Amino acid sequence: MLVTLLCPNLRCRRVLQVPDTTRGHRVRCGHCGQILTVPTKQQQKAKASKDPRTTQTPSA
Description:
Blueprint: E1 2-6, E2 15-19, E3 26-28, E4 35-37, H1 41-50
Antiparallel strand pairs: 1-2, 3-4
């Protein structure tokens, strides 16, 4: 399974897909060379639960 990331370099912003086995490790963007850390599953779930865009509001 692949993990999809966005390069944090504001001049690059490429979409990266890395193997699931790289979770928790540092990887390098193939385009700009920026080093970033692939989030673990727990970090990704915690971030998604805090993101207000992912929570659904009940419709009245």
